[in-house]
Amino acid sequence: MNYISNAANELTPTNAVIETILSRSAAKYYDRAATLSDDEIRDLVRIGTSAPTSFHLQNWRFIAVRTPDAKALLHPIAWKQPAILDAAVTFIIVGQLADASTVPARLAPVVEAGIMPAHLVPEWEIPARGLYDDQPQRQRDEAVRSATFGTAAIIYAARSFGLGSTPMIGFDAEAVHREFGLAEDEIPVMLLTVGPERAGNWPQKPRMPVAEVLSFA
């Protein structure tokens, strides 16, 4: 593996994945004339759904806001942030409350693919029920956790495609829930703008030194 040395004389392995991660930054300025095709949006979400979820729940949903009418609906309830109008697409990242009863259905394709033997399905469902049944806070925590994992995967996928992105928490959650028809068990976790950038965006900002955030036990 090849390594590079940064300004702090820390050695970092070089490959396309790591370079994508280290070069990502939050985009503020987007090319308003740019668009993404249906297939490009599907590719981003397909990659996003490869992220991990507890018990393979896949308890997430993604709403791609990209038409002028949909952007106009989202913009005022997203604190009128310009990126909502400027970016090619804004994903409403939806987390679904963890529901252990969905485990057999989620695992059915895994069994069909020959990855998991069928007799193991109850061994996943039973502990999932013990973890989530009648535990509303834990159900909500898992919705946010899964949605965040999926969002991170989309962010890095977008960067690998040469696109900018910005996760955003500035929005009226109740209004987004209402105006975009979310179900009772769904939470609008965050917004994610994605699209080709225009000039003026900053590079990735320096982070805290590893020594300040890492301890060994």
Automatic annotation (TrEMBL):
Record bears the keyword Secreted: no
Record-annotated Nitroreductase domain positions: 21-195
Entry keyword Mitochondrion: no
Keywords, ordered alphabetically: Oxidoreductase
Domain of life: Bacteria
UniProt signal peptide: none
Matches recorded under InterPro entries: Nitroreductase (IPR029479), Nitroreductase-like (IPR000415)
Transmembrane segments: none
Any Pfam family: Nitroreductase
Single GO term (MF): oxidoreductase activity
Family: Belongs to the nitroreductase family.
Protein name: Nitroreductase family protein
Organism from which the protein derives: Rhizobium leguminosarum
Organism ancestry: Bacteria, Pseudomonadati, Pseudomonadota, Alphaproteobacteria, Hyphomicrobiales
